[in-house]
């Protein structure tokens, strides 16, 4: 199977590339060398690689940044997705496009709404999720209008080795190791009152490949663990493992203008169609992040 990954140099892209290769797929991967907002550049990459499936991961993804850079998030996430869809339809019309959206499109929900399934209303609560929902509209329209096989994945939070320290778990791990080495007694944290549905990135990329093999065009599929974990519990678990006794102090600079209080997704639909279900427990994911950081940064 010939596969092309956009955004292949990122956290998820690296894990997806490794998974596809392990399954025997012929994988091409592009990152910043292919500007997805440049239609001709995208066409050139597709012409060279002639993929049977395109995993479109390229996007701006940091929710906090989206508040101060809204136009760029729209340009990359919306126009970039439209370009990938248009280029694939003209160059490799029989190829499947897996568009990776986000569970953020559901917005702020109540406890009674959980677990969220794909029929639940969408109500983006930040510019990042607004850009993803608009890109979803292009993906759905491409399928409806032309029959292009486009499948939309809505992953909930995911974590694992190699994730940028700009995100919650690896960022906290980094600050805890620094505090332990420097003998500090406190570190800054963001809002720890929320609850999140975390999946391991290695489970997530398995889901993407299975969606290509078995998913239905024009459909949306949650990729979720089916459980919500308290961010405070995660922070305390990491603190106790890395720097016991360090106080976690809220830093206003790490707070977002709007915070989704709780998320938990249903993976019933993707399980029914592909057989996928999460296999890696959160405690294992957290341990692997710590060990990966320890090895890469030669923590004493």
Task: Map the helices and strands.
Layout: E1 2-6, H1 11-22, E2 26-30, H2 39-49, E3 53-56, H3 63-66, H4 70-91, E4 96-100, H5 127-146, E5 150-155, E6 157-159, H6 168-182, E7 186-189, E8 195-196, E9 198-200, H7 201-214, E10 220-223, E11 229-230, H8 231-242, E12 247-250, H9 268-274, H10 282-296
Low-confidence stretches: none
Q: Please tell me the total number of domains.
A: 2
CATH level 1 class label of the largest domain: Alpha Beta
Biggest pleated sheet: 6 strands, parallel
CATH architecture verdict of the largest domain: 3-Layer(aba) Sandwich
Number of helices: 10
Q: Tell me what portion of residues adopts beta-strand conformation.
A: 15-25%
Task: Indicate the overall shape.
Answer: globular
The number of distinct β-strands equals 12
- Approximate helicity band: 40-55%
**How far apart are the first and last residues' alpha carbons, in Å?**
43 Å
What name does the CATH topology of the largest domain carry? Rossmann fold
Q: Largest sheet, order of strands side by side?
A: 2-1-3-4-5-10
C-alpha-based Rg, rounded = 19 Å
The topology string of helices and strands comes to: EHEHEHHEHEEHEEEHEEHEHH
Mean pLDDT: 95
């Amino acid at each position: 199977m010939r596969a092309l990954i956009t955004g292949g140099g990122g956290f998820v892209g690296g894990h997806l590339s490794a998974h596809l290769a392990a399954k025997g797929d012929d994988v091409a991967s592009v990152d910043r060398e292919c500007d997805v907002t440049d239609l001709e550049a995208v066409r050139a990459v597709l012409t060279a690689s002639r993929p049977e499936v395109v995993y479109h991961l390229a996007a701006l993804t940091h929710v906090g940044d989206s508040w101060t850079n809204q136009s760029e998030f729209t340009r990359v996430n919306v126009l970039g997705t439209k370009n990938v869809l248009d280029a694939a339809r003209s160059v490799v019309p029989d190829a499947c496009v897996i568009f990776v959206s986000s569970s953020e499109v559901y917005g702020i929900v109540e406890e009674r709404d959980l677990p969220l399934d794909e029929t639940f209303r969408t109500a983006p609560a930040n510019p990042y999720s607004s850009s993803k929902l608009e890109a979803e509209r292009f993906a759905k329209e491409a399928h409806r209008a032309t029959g292009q096989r486009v499948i939309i994945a809505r992953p909930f939070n995911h974590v694992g080795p190699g994730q940028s320290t700009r995100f919650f778990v690896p960022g906290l791990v980094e600050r805890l190791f620094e505090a332990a080495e420097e003998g500090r007694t406190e570190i800054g944290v963001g809002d720890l009152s929320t609850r999140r549905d975390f999946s391991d990135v290695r489970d997530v990329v398995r889901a993407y490949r299975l969606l290509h093999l078995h998913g239905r065009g024009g459909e949306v599929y949650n990729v979720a663990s089916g459980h919500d974990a308290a961010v405070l519990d995660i922070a305390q678990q990491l603190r106790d493992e890395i720097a016991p006794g360090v106080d976690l102090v809220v830093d206003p600079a790490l707070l977002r203008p709007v915070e989704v209080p709780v998320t938990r997704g249903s993976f019933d639909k993707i399980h029914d169609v592909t057989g996928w279900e999460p296999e890696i427990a959160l405690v294992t994911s957290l341990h692997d992040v710590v060990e990966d950081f320890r090895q890469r940064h030669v923590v004493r």
